């Protein structure tokens, strides 16, 4: 049985794709935080929703790497 994945509030910089019931999320990640829901629906129409929250700290990581290279 194939699952269907969806989201009504995924950030514009992320793309949700699915193939054979498996979902993938990809995109160019900015700094900051984001929260979004993913909904999975089975062939009988039953659903489950999970809230994802991500904290993205690209600036902080770059700063730490540069700082460690200076020493």
What do you see in this structure?
This protein is an alpha+beta fold and 71 residues long. The protein contains one helix and five strands; from the N terminus they run βββββα. The strands form two sheets. A three-stranded antiparallel β-sheet has the order 1-4-5, with no helix packed on it. A two-stranded antiparallel sheet has the order 2-3. The longest helix has 13 residues, at 58-70.
The Rg value, from CA coordinates, equals: 17 Å
What is the helix fraction of residues, given as a range? 10-25%
The total beta strand count reads: 5
Find the structural class using helix and strand composition.
alpha+beta
**N-to-C series of helices and strands:** EEEEEH
Q: Characterize the biggest β-sheet.
A: 3 strands, antiparallel
How much β-strand is present in the residues? Answer: over 45%
Poorly predicted ranges (pLDDT <50, ≥5 residues)?
Answer: 61-65
Quote the distance from N terminus to C terminus: 56 Å
């Amino acid at each position: 049985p194939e699952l269907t994945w969806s989201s009504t509030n995924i950030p514009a910089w992320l793309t949700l794709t699915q193939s054979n019931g498996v979902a993938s999320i990809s995109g160019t990640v900015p700094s900051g935080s984001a929260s979004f829901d993913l909904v999975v629906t089975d062939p009988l129409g039953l659903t489950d929703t999970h809230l994802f929250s991500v904290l993205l700290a690209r600036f902080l990581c770059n700063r730490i790497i540069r700082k460690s290279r200076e020493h």
